[in-house]
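<instruction>
Derive structure tokens from the sequence
<data>
Labelled lines for chain and fold:
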Amino acid sequence: MKLGIGIIGCGGISPSHINIYSGFPEEVQIVAVCDIEKERAESRKQIVRDTYLKRVAEHQEQAEKAESQSDKDKYAKLVEECKNAAEIEVVTYTDYEELAQDERVNAVNICTPPFAHPPPMIAAANAGKHVFCEGPIAGDLKQADAMIAAARANQIKFTVQYGTRFSRGSRMAKYAIDEGKLGKILMGKVDVMWYRGQSYYDSGAWRGTWAGERGGATFHHGRYAIDLYLWLMGDVSEIYAQMDTFTHQIEVEDCSMSVLRYKHGALGQILASTSAHSGIAPSQRIEIFGEKAAISVIPNWGVGSSEQGYAEQLKQELEAAVPELPYGGMVGQMKDFIDAIREDREPYITGESVRPQVEVTRGIYKSAATGQPAKLPLKPYDPYYAG
């Protein structure tokens, strides 16, 4: 039986979710969309149909070019699945509570702006629907913990979009660190150096505001690379940070620098900006240094060591241990979400596993505001736990 999918929030990211689901027509069917603006929900309803019809044309072409009969049959079946999917009535809602009660919906994707993730996620969980939520999970730890608790209490599958973990390079890095292949971890750093003009922030009333983005270059723009970095490096015990707003008329920071101490003793650095002109270095970069070797994770995977023989040996070992992923990025994560529901297992990325991205960035804001190091974990009575 196919899983019925509901899309909550019909903004700019929702077509990507629709497109990815349309690639698995034998397993899922989009049956409902919701937005507070009726016209936008109706527009996404049409996009659902158009996307399935586009897949029909793609699979027809693939069937014509296929050389084996088995491939021809495979694509012919996909053509029929997508044709049928395009004809299914997609119901539009303006109230996410109503969508959550739709019996045809088995799982929902939360595609609202970051400040609006918690209410629909909790409503869906309480209705017994599985949830795939765009990142970040929430703007503070109080909301994040409430979402995680709702998922556990209702025994639903809950994941948050951090497709950067679905790459072979990130998996090889995780394996190398967890298996001690780099030796003791000494240092690690992540750079998130974007350039955003003022027009970007002027394009939406919520952009560049504490209420809307819940943070600037560090929390909002840096969330994907910082999540990957923290997932690899482990638990943070202390943070010292400074930040400022140099080039934009916005509430939140456009530049920040943070120094971290990890519980296992290593040092770390987070550098984030939306004022960084491009052309001199990659916009995002993660590098981790151990006693025996160092690795580059993004934008390019690489292994280095002063002992060249060890670097080559480690590279070969990691490539042998970690196979290519069948699907990468957000496609891989959404497929894992589908499989987790069908197989009744935890998704590869759980709500708990993305919590550090919220806690560390809240610690960064605390340190920058107070001028003092911030110690983790943040306690529920700390103003920055729920701030």
